[in-house]
Amino acid sequence: MPKLTINGKEVEVPEGTNLIEAAKTAGAEVPHYCYHPALSIAGQCRLCMVDIDKVPRPQIACNTQATEGMVVHTETERVLETRRSMMEFHLINHPLDCPVCDQAGECFLQIYYMKHGLYDPRMVDEKVHKPKAVPIGPHVMLDAERCILCSRCVRFCDEITHTGELGIFQRGDQSEIGLFPGTALENKYSGNVVDICPVGALTDRDFRFQVRVWYLDTAKSICNGCARGCNVEVHTNRHRPHHNQGRRVARLKPRFNAEINQWWLCDEGRYGFKWMDDKSRLTHPLHKGGGEGGEVSWDRALPELVKRLQGCPPDEVGLLASPKMSNEDLWALRRLAEHLGVRNLDFRVPPGAPGDEDDFLIRADKNPNSRGAELIGVAPGPGGRDAAGILRAARERRLKLLWIFHHDLAASGWPEAEVLAAIESTETVVFQGTNANDVSARAHLVLPSAAYVETEGTFTNFQGRVQRFRTAIPPLGESWPDWKILSVVGKALGASDPVFSAERAEQVFNALAAAVPAFGGMTYRALGDTGRMATA
Amino acid sequence: MTGNARNPEFGAEHLAEVRRLQGLYPDKRGALLPVLHLAQDTFGYISLEVEEYVAGLFELSPAHVHEVVTFYTLYFQQPKGRHVVAVCHNLSCHLLGAKGIIEHLTQSLGVEVGETTPDGRVTLLSVECLCACEQAPMMQVDDRYEGYLTPEKVDGIVGGLL
Amino acid sequence: MAEPILTRNFDVPDAHTIRVYRERGGYQAWEKAKGMEPAAIAEEVKKSNLRGLGGAGFPTGVKWGFIPKGSTAPRYLVVNADEGEPGTFKDRYLMERDPHALIEGMLIAARAIGSHLGFIYIRGEYVQPWRIVSAAVKEAYDARLLGKNIQGTGFDFEIVVHRGAGAYICGEETGLISSLEGKKGWPKVKPPFPAVKGAFGQPTIVNNVETLACLPHIITRGAEWFAALGTKTQGGTRLYSVSGHVVRPGLVEAPVSVTLRQIIYDHCGGIPGGRALKAVVPGGSSAAILTPDEIDIPMDVDGPKSKGSMIGSAGIIVMDETVSIPDALMVVARFYAHESCGQCTPCRESTGWIYKISHRIVEGKGRKEDLDTILDVARRGAGTTICAFYDGAVGPYISYIEKFRSEFEDLIRSSAHA
């Protein structure tokens, strides 16, 4: 572990650490473009120069390894002048697109110019012109003029996705990022190039012109698109409904987690958030035979549900839980099932189409919390029916109440006709979920769930990592978190478990951690930002 | 059966040559430049179809072959004339009248630099140092160097190209 | 005229064939070297003060020693025959007229560094030289001087002749390596240096054609002899390529102690029409320009350096009083803009920019800030790039303007935009 001095401060770093990373440990930020910890060293931008004692000229920090006794200076006059020179070189041919460029506000030409440039420009000749606003894939837009040729995107497609779509063609100041003509950037991780592009050369087509980034709020969360549980940030437009077409969620960005997704996010997860603001969102409880379009208040809907539950023998109740529900939601459901003596409880509804999986991030299981459901014991009680059994019992008129959580059963792997027959044959069908579907349209009682980004809780990924997601926006309309709906129902049924008087998700989690050994010892604080492994 | 630039395919003999060249290098990719020369000689120029075809022979993405083809000046991405006349415009040749030679050629051939005569006979280029400065002003005509040029000498050489 | 050494076979008919080469004593050096210890060969070359003749002037024997001791990795000998420095044409002559000297030099170097695979990277435009060298290599194979178990010595050495495709930057040793690997000629970030990790990831020594052609003479006639021909820091003769405004342009072989004045006036007949010398490029276009009062210098690695220039590739371009220096700068700036590989920011962006400015000046649209802009930008970029290409551009950018500033200023003053 070499010990070196950076700006007068002694630090110790692992063997092989480059000076950009070493400087971070000493609290110094070395500006850079082409360096990225996940990618090979390019040494092209020349912005990360630092001074090193006994070395006559400044050296690039990205390609210099820390050695014992090295003395590094990142803020000498010479380094500052060099940075200013490099900023000028980068901006010589850069178009002044800021007013129309999505990157504004998070652009590293802007950021570094303000910090390290601040010179008067003197380039009066015609800038080099290159193609602008070229869609290069379903998700990515290219502006070749804005490109600073850091080659991060090229290296990403070579080294991370191994798909090699991008190249730098020609030479000199005619160099241009592009695709082989006639091809597209179609790999399943294409959106990541937008993250790693330091400037507005590669931008998100979905986010294009929607809302300025400085209007966005952010919350730490987890992608709910599959069992990997990639860490994300949810960026929301909360105060300006005239932007982003009124949608609250503007985009998802990956959050670094060394154990799960490193710096990356798959396209399906990245762009799979439209359902949160879709007009199919259920915003109010509905009761067939109730008031306006069936809309009723919670004060009317839940007592109705309680009454029906009390009128059912436990073996004639079926609970189809969902692995989209959080650990907190599922714990509350299991405790409710136990209180009611309902043994027909399961979450395993077959998917409509086999999920695709790869050897990188994408898991075939498109639910975020199947492992949580397993660990929590969301399974038939002794002698109880599993999901298929519940469906069959419903069809055979042996269930009086079928409570479906989140599933779009008509689009599942079960034949649609059987699903509809089951719905028709059951006296009370309760649908609890976020978005309307063919089954919710036929349910007697519809209870609107808050989307996971509208509440907080935890998911357990396929490896058993328990991770927190935090509230990004308030629940839409009158929707409530699932655990809250269940706790109010449980309380009304006279259940005494502390879960049923919980005011916050954390209380439900603490109850879960106290009762289920796999979650033993966990608290929200202990889970932090990167989660902890369940012990089972 | 060797195909053409729109439909490129090497015949057995050329394919054997490709494999032989690939075998000369510790990594077969080293043979890419020689194989692109072979492809250009065989198909006339390096079209996008040729790039894709060669990419397949090397198990490279077409984008990476396109990078190589667009980087180097000797690979023609458009059909070229039966003859390529490349006049040097670097320092020594410039000092000794390259500009005049180039102007003379644009006049006599009736094309601008970079263009090919309508009859497909000659492509005229203006290039950087060919390292024959002792013969300045000079030009490369296909495979050979021609130096100590005067407009008359140029007429004689270019006139003789069929 | 001193004894021709490198040029001894140049005007001998068929000297490019192995038969004539051998008749004239060729491959005798290899006879000796094949029985020498590799370390002994390297020692001899160090003592000879042979310096790289491609442009960098680095001591050849020392360069060979950079391969890590004790490494058992296969190492490659790569010949830089990508001659491209404007004003230089010596390697072309060597390849066309004495290709076996190169092959014999390669054998000696290969034995010294323990290489069994060599590549000759010839610029793509050199089609005739490529054909002649390829034929010579075939002759050597046929004579069992190349291939496996050469002449029963147990020493293997294969040579692959490789054509480039048109890019000056492939004359930079790591740009050449990238191109040899089948990629764009992008120079590599250093460290690692080629002797440690070069072509195809293995230790690689890149030597210039002329440098290798010196080796047979060093082996047969001794390091002391070679060193004594030159100056204290550089041994031997070298080939000076002379062009521009001289009566007799062409190659001049002379000991490296020869002065620039002697080359121009004694060897090349001075300037046509008796005109006055205005400026001279001493070492290829990347070398800072010299004025008439600066030509009494020995043309070794130290002489031009003493005047703030460099010997580089020894490409000498003579400019007489009729030359417009701003016009010459524009031509040279155009070259660097065209040949910049584009990999790193300072070079990519400023070579194009400076060409635009220099062109504008020549067109009569220069502005008074232009000269200081070029000088400042060049100084800010110098020493910051991945390779020395940009520093080669900076040589002319700064020297032409500093040494002929009034000529530039006159031109700008008379423009409409001053």
Summarize the structure.
The complex is a heterotrimer of chains A (536), B (162) and C (418). Chain A has 536 residues and is of the alpha+beta class. Chain A has helices spanning 19-25, 77-91, 108-117, 152-159, 192-196, 267-270, 298-310, 327-340, 370-376, 387-395, 416-424, 482-492, 505-515, 524-527; strands spanning 3-6, 9-12, 49-52, 59-60, 71-73, 134-135, 140-142, 166-169, 176-179, 202-204, 217-222, 231-236, 249-254, 286-287, 317-320, 345-346, 401-405, 428-433, 445-448, 457-460, 465-469, 532-533.
Topology diagram in text:
The complex is a heterotrimer of chains A (536), B (162) and C (418).
Chain A: E1 3-6, E2 9-12, H1 19-25, E3 49-52, E4 59-60, E5 71-73, H2 77-91, H3 108-117, E6 134-135, E7 140-142, H4 152-159, E8 166-169, E9 176-179, H5 192-196, E10 202-204, E11 217-222, E12 231-236, E13 249-254, H6 267-270, E14 286-287, H7 298-310, E15 317-320, H8 327-340, E16 345-346, H9 370-376, H10 387-395, E17 401-405, H11 416-424, E18 428-433, E19 445-448, E20 457-460, E21 465-469, H12 482-492, H13 505-515, H14 524-527, E22 532-533
Parallel strand pairs in A: 1-5, 15-16, 15-17, 17-18, 18-19
Antiparallel strand pairs in A: 1-2, 3-4, 3-5, 6-7, 7-10, 8-9, 11-12, 12-13, 14-19, 20-21, 21-22
Chain B: H1 12-24, H2 32-43, H3 48-58, H4 62-71, E1 83-88, H5 91-95, H6 98-109, E2 122-127, E3 139-141, E4 144-146, H7 151-159
Parallel strand pairs in B: 1-2
Antiparallel strand pairs in B: 1-3, 3-4
Chain C: H1 18-23, H2 28-33, H3 38-47, H4 60-64, E1 76-81, H5 90-97, H6 99-113, E2 117-122, H7 127-142, E3 158-163, H8 173-180, E4 204-208, H9 209-221, H10 223-229, E5 237-244, E6 250-255, H11 260-267, E7 277-281, E8 315-320, H12 325-339, H13 345-362, H14 370-381, H15 389-403, H16 405-413
Parallel strand pairs in C: 1-2, 1-4, 2-3, 5-8
Antiparallel strand pairs in C: 5-6, 7-8
Structural notes for this entry:
The complex is a heterotrimer of chains A (536), B (162) and C (418). Chain A is an alpha+beta fold and 536 residues long. Helices cover 24% and strands 16% of the residues of chain A. Chain A has a 6-stranded mixed β-sheet with strand order 14-19-18-17-15-16, with helices on both faces. A 5-stranded mixed β-sheet of chain A has the order 2-1-5-3-4, with helices on both faces. Chain A is elongated. With 162 residues, chain B is an alpha+beta fold. Chain B folds into 2 domains: 12-71, Orthogonal Bundle (Arc Repressor Mutant, subunit A), CATH 1.10.10; 83-159, Glutaredoxin (3-Layer(aba) Sandwich), CATH 3.40.30.10. Chain B is built from 7 helices and 4 strands. Chain B has a 4-stranded mixed β-sheet, with helices on one face. In chain B, a hairpin with a 2-residue loop joins strand 3 (139-141) and strand 4 (144-146). Chain C folds into 3 domains: 18-52 and 61-228, Rossmann fold (3-Layer(aba) Sandwich); 237-320, Ubiquitin-like (UB roll), CATH 3.10.20.600; 325-413, de novo design (two linked rop proteins) (Up-down Bundle). Chain C is globular, with a radius of gyration of 22 Å. Chains in contact: A-B, A-C, B-C. Chains B and C meet through helix 2, helix 4 and helix 5 of B and strand 3, strand 5, strand 8 and helix 12 of C.
